[in-house]
Structure formats: structure tokens, C-alpha cells
Specification:
Elements: E1 5-8, E2 12-18, E3 21-22, H1 30-50, H2 52-58, H3 77-90, H4 92-111, E4 132-136, E5 142-146, H5 148-151, E6 162-168, E7 189-191, H6 199-209, E8 211-212, H7 216-222, H8 230-234, E9 237-238, H9 244-248, E10 259-265, E11 268-272, E12 277-280, E13 304-308, H10 319-325, E14 329-335, H11 347-353, E15 359-362, E16 367-370, E17 373-378, E18 394-399, E19 402-406, H12 416-425, E20 430-434, H13 442-446, H14 456-461, H15 469-479, E21 483-487, H16 503-506, H17 508-522, E22 526-528, E23 534-538
Parallel strand pairs: 12-13, 13-14, 14-15, 19-20, 20-21, 21-22
Antiparallel strand pairs: 1-8, 1-9, 2-3, 2-6, 4-5, 6-7, 10-11, 10-23, 11-12, 16-17, 17-18, 18-19
Length: 543
């Protein structure tokens, strides 16, 4: 008699944490993580302890949603005080590292005036000796290059601070999460092993393939789930008709004639032929018995040949989804960047640190061959507040006899770029373009990394803005696509924790996208703004 299998539930949420804070891409690299600790997390806790009612109220005020608020009931302020004290004690070394980085930046900017850098090496703070190079650019502006390969192998990288918070979700709504730590008294179960551990692959493979019921406790032990939480851990699993994959049945295996495109929400799009699967910017919804229709875990192939990431922002490089898909992913494709700077750490090294092994870097206008097609990195301008960041690419995918451009949040700051691109790639069957017409101020995304705060006027001017109506239409004019889909708008109901959109505050992008869709349709171009779930078949001989 075979062992009874149980399955990880489709509504089992898994949030990666660093030092018990929900983690983004900025919390993995050692230097960036330390700077966020000192410049974001600790100030947030101190502010909350001083005014817990203010934080609680602001987190529930529509116009302020997504701001720097610790979303914890004021009745728990004593618990937060304890967390703050514990963090300050536990994190002394990383706090000192961040201060040393700031000290080194100040030293270089004051003492490097165009002469040789060599005398300055003796003045580098001891924690950073041997981990940096001091350089000039060709305009004699000094800067520090961090040797990331060494830093990831140094005491400054502390994977033991990583963990995963597990709980079942009741519904799609999730409050903004990145400014609030997970407390011991929260209902989450904490898996206290580093993110690179292969035991997570076993856990998340159980959502699809199951695990013998008798091994669930063993799995919990290997995840370092506390003994008192083991009952709760067992409740994350189910058997029989209630299991996600048993309920949905075997994945549909109808032969794919041409190219199938499936939309999973935000910028997550799966392209499939009979030969290959390519998934862009995975951010998946959890299964729910009611609510908006969705494509989710059960709608992905058993093996994902390529995951392709457009840029190093948390709604496109999403740790929560990537960790849960790691066991299914054969290769991850990323824009090539040099790394070594605070604002633009190595994309490849970040992924390697969290357990991905086959990572392919592609430079602008370079291509990689796929079964029956090709993937090419295209320039991606804007949406990074004018910082010198190269970890971003739009992608041209040729597959199944068709071609698509996934432009993500590209801002059309220079329409001539798309004339050059058209001359190389030709006309496009499908254009997917995000339209974050206003964008957040620079400090919202990069505030924890700034060595000197920007004046408010400049912070408001330098935004993470994508294409507006005029910019989007100029791209359409130059690429001449047959279909246009406006995506990556953050409108799905399950994205509130990641992109807290508030209609009266953030509606310009929707209004601009409506205009783009209407103008495209008037020209005879198929256009839409997919929401939650969609499927498109492109077949030879069809329109």
C-alpha cells in the first residue's frame, strides 16, 4: 500500500525575511542590506515607539497607504520596544558596517580631488579593508567599487539572518508589508534556515507533487520550525480533493499550435510552445476559493525552461515567488550589469546567494538561442530616478513564428531609441508595456541607500516613472505592433502588499493607458489592459 501524500496548500503564503523583516532584493547584498538596516528599519522602529498611534492611523489612511508606517497595533508597543532593543544588540556588527560605508564615502568625496587614490587605502575603515577599490570616472569624480564576490564570502554576509514566514491566507487582501517586521506573537510560522537551503525546494515542490504525510514533521524539523508550531505547520498541508493540484486535476497538455501567452497578473507572463516555456517577471497569486479568477501555481508547467527578469525592483524581481518556483526553474536570465556599486549591485550574485545555480547574463542587443526561437535584451531607459543602473532590460522574444517585446516599465525618454530598435528587430506582433505615468519619488525605492538625502523638490522630480500616454504612443508609432497590451499596472487585488495602489492618488497611469488603448483600437491595433488572468493564442495564419 502506497504512502498517503499530502500537498502544500495553494493558499500557503511564504514570505522571505531578513532579520525578521519582509525582504526585497535590497536586503540580500551585504552592503545594501546593512544600509537599509541603519537607514530604514531602525529609524522606523524608533519612530513607531515614539508615536505608535500615529503610525497605526497613517497605515489606514488611503492617501498615505504605502508610506513609512509600522503597521502594528499600539497596544503592542512594548513588544516593538523589545524588538528594537534586540535588533540593536544583535546587529551591532552590521550597524557598524553601514557606518563605515558612509564614512568611506565621505572620505573619498572630501579627500579624492583628482590625485592618486593610493594614499587613501590606509584610511579605509578596517571592516572594509580588502573589500573595496577606490576609483575615478573620466570626469575625475571619485567613487567606491565594492568587491561583491569577496563580500558574499565574508563575515559581512549573514545568511543566518534569513528566514521564511509561513501562514495561510484568507482572501487576497494583504496590507503593505515592507515597513513592518514579523513579531514573535504574529500568527506566522517561522522557517529559520537561509534562503539558499534546498529544504525550501522540497517544501514548495510539495504543492505540486505532494509529500508523504509521515514526513511532514521531519520536513518541519529541517526547516527549523519550532516544536510548538509543528501542529500549525501540519495544517499547511492537505490531502485528497481539497489539495490544489488534486482539485484542479492534471495540467492541460493539449499540443500548442503556434505560441500561447498566459497572463498571471502585473508583469508576469508565460510564453509557451511545444518546445519551450519562458516566464517573465514571476509574481503569482495564491489560490483562493473565491475572488477574482486567476492563473496560479497549478497553471505553470512542471518545468520552467527560462525565467526572464526585466529589472531589479521588487515587483519584477520578486523573492517571494521566485523562492517558491526555484525547484521548477531550469535557468534564470537577467540583464548583465557590472555590479559593485551601492545603487546597482550584481543581479547574478544576488540570485546565486539565494540558491539559483544556472543564471544567464545578457547584455544589450545580445541574444540567446531558445528551442525554436531567440531572446534578445533591448535597452531599457528610465524608471530608475536617473540613477546609473544597468540591471534592466526590455526583452524581444521570437518564438513559435511570432515575436513579442516585453518592455516592462521602460520610460520613453528618447523616442529615437525605438526607431533604432525597430531597425534591428523589425515589426512586432505583441507589445507589452507598463505605464507608471507618475511613479514614486526616488527616496521611496532608494532612500535607504542614499548617503545624503535629496531636497524634497528634487526627490519629487526624480521619480521611478515609466511611459505616459505620449511616450507609449511614440513607442507604438515606431515599433508598429499588431497587438498592444498595457500591463504591470499593479491593479490585481492580491498585490496590495507589494504595490499599494490608491485610486485617487495613483490613477493617472490608468487614465493614460485608457487613452493608449482607445487610440490603438482606432488605428486597427488590437489593444487591451489584461487584469488578473488572460490567455492569448497566436497561430500561423491567424491575425
Amino acid at each position: 500500500m502506497s504512502e498517503e501524500l499530502v500537498y502544500l496548500r495553494g493558499d500557503a503564503c511564504a514570505r522571505p525575511l531578513v532579520s525578521r523583516w519582509p525582504a526585497t532584493e535590497q536586503h540580500i547584498p551585504p552592503i545594501q542590506s546593512a544600509l537599509n538596516l541603519v537607514n530604514v528599519w531602525l529609524p522606523l522602529l524608533r519612530s513607531y515607539v515614539e508615536a505608535p498611534e500615529y503610525h497605526w492611523k497613517a497605515a489606514r489612511t488611503p492617501a498615505l497607504i504605502g508610506g513609512p508606517w509600522v503597521d502594528i497595533d499600539p497596544a503592542r508597543v512594548a513588544e516593538v520596544e523589545t524588538v528594537l532593543e534586540a535588533m540593536q544588540a544583535r546587529e551591532r556588527e552590521r550597524i557598524a558596517l553601514a557606518r563605515d560605508v558612509e564614512q568611506l564615502d565621505a572620505l573619498v568625496r572630501s579627500a579624492a580631488t583628482g590625485g592618486s587614490m593610493t594614499p587613501l587605502y590606509a584610511r579605509i575603515p578596517p571592516r572594509l579593508r580588502g573589500y573595496v577599490e577606490l576609483v575615478y570616472d573620466l570626469a575625475n569624480s571619485p567613487r567606491v567599487r565594492f568587491l561583491e564576490g569577496l563580500l558574499y564570502r565574508s563575515p559581512h554576509y549573514v545568511p543566518e539572518l534569513q528566514s521564511v514566514a509561513l501562514r495561510r491566507l484568507a482572501g487576497d487582501h494583504r496590507a503593505p508589508q515592507f515597513t513592518t517586521p514579523v513579531l514573535d506573537s504574529d500568527p506566522d510560522l517561522c522557517a529559520s534556515v537561509p534562503l539558499a537551503s534546498e529544504v525550501y525546494d522540497e517544501l514548495f515542490a510539495a504543492r505540486r507533487h505532494g509529500v508523504p504525510r509521515a514526513r511532514v514533521d521531519e520536513l518541519g524539523e529541517r526547516l527549523a520550525i519550532s516544536a510548538e508550531d509543528r501542529v500549525g505547520f501540519r495544517e499547511l498541508f492537505t490531502a485528497g480533493a481539497d489539495a490544489t493540484f488534486a482539485r484542479s486535476g492534471p495540467r492541460e497538455t493539449t499540443p500548442i499550435d503556434g505560441l500561447r501567452m498566459r497572463y498571471f497578473g502585473h508583469a508576469c507572463v508565460l510564453f509557451e510552445t511545444d518546445e519551450v516555456s519562458v516566464l517573465f517577471d514571476p509574481v503569482l497569486a495564491y489560490e483562493q476559493p473565491s475572488g477574482a479568477p486567476r492563473n496560479s501555481w497549478s497553471d505553470l508547467p512542471d518545468t520552467i525552461d527560462y525565467v526572464v527578469l526585466t529589472h531589479y525592483h521588487k515587483d519584477h524581481f520578486n523573492l517571494e515567488t521566485l523562492l517558491q518556483l526555484r525547484h521548477q526553474i531550469l535557468r534564470v536570465v537577467v540583464p548583465k550589469n557590472t555590479g559593485g556599486t551601492v545603487e546597482d549591485p550584481s543581479f547574478r550574485r544576488t540570485l546565486a546567494a539565494i540558491g539559483f545555480s544556472e543564471i544567464i547574463e545578457v547584455d544589450e542587443l545580445e541574444s540567446i538561442a531558445l528551442a525554436g526561437g531567440e531572446l534578445t535584451a533591448l535597452p531599457f531607459l528610465g524608471e530608475h530616478a536617473d540613477l546609473d543602473i544597468s540591471s534592466k532590460a526590455a526583452w524581444h522574444l521570437r518564438l513559435g513564428g511570432f515575436c513579442a517585446v516585453c518592455a516592462a516599465d521602460s520610460a520613453n525618454v528618447d523616442p529615437e531609441l525605438y526607431a533604432h530598435i525597430h531597425a534591428i528587430v523589425g515589426e512586432v506582433d505583441v507589445l507589452l508595456l507598463g505605464m507608471e505615468s507618475v511613479g514614486a519619488p526616488l527616496s521611496t525605492t532608494y532612500g535607504g541607500l542614499l548617503f545624503r538625502p535629496l531636497p524634497r523638490t528634487l526627490d519629487q522630480e526624480r521619480r521611478t516613472t515609466g511611459s505616459d500616454y505620449a511616450g507609449a504612443m511614440a513607442i507604438v508609432d515606431r515599433l508598429r505592433p499588431r497587438r498592444v497590451y498595457i500591463y504591470a499596472m499593479g491593479l490585481e487585488p492580491w498585490l496590495g502588499h507589494l504595490l499599494p495602489i490608491e485610486a485617487s492618488r495613483d490613477g493617472q497611469g490608468v487614465a493614460d493607458s485608457d487613452r493608449v488603448i482607445a487610440d490603438c483600437r482606432r488605428r486597427g491595433i488590437i489593444a487591451d489592459r489584461p487584469h488578473c488572468a488572460a490567455e492569448l493564442w497566436l497561430r500561423n495564419g491567424s491575425d
